Amino acid sequence: xxxxxxxxxxxxxxxxxxxxxxxxxxxxxxxxxxxxxxxxxxxxxxxxxxxxxxxxxxxxxxxxxxxxxxxxxxxxxxxxxxxxxxxxxxxxxxxxxxxxxxxxxxxxxxxxxxxxxxxxxxxxxxxxxxxxxxxxxxxxxxxxxxxxxxxxxxxxxxxxxxxxx
Length: 165
Known about the structure:
The protein is mainly alpha-helical. The chain has a domain at 22-126: Orthogonal Bundle (Arc Repressor Mutant, subunit A). Helices cover 66% and strands 7% of the residues. The chain has a three-stranded antiparallel β-sheet. Helix 3 (57-64) packs across helix 4 (68-80). The longest helix is centred in the C-terminal third of the chain and has 34 residues, at 128-161. It starts with a helix and ends with a helix.
C-alpha cells in the first residue's frame, strides 16, 4: 500500500516520537560509583571519542557536527574532569591529539553497558522472529540516517568552502 503525503507525515511524527523515547532511555547513562557527572553533550563526546584511539580537534568537531570552539569547550570541560587527555602529535608537533583517559574509558564502558542492558530489556519480550524483524528495520533506518548525515556533512563542507561576497 502506497503512503499518502498525510499518512507519511503522520508516520514521520510517530517515528520521531519513538526516537525521542529511545533517546531518553539511552542518554545519559547512569552515574558510576566513584565517577563524575557529565552532561548529555559530554556523554555524546565521550561516546564519539571512544570510536578511535585519538583525534585531532578538527576531526572531533566534524564527528560531533559542532564548531571548533564548541568542541574545544567540551574537551576543556572533560580534561578538567580527567576524562580526556591532550598530547602533541609525534608526526606534527603543531597538532594536538585528544583521546579518552582511563576515567573517560571507564565512563564510556559504563554507558555501553547501560545501553546493552536497555537493548536487552527492549528485545526480551519479543520472540526471535520479532527481534530479527526489528533489527532489520533498525539497520535500514541506520543506513538511511548515515546517507542523510553524509549529505548534510558534504553540504556543510561545500558551504564553508564557498566564498561569501
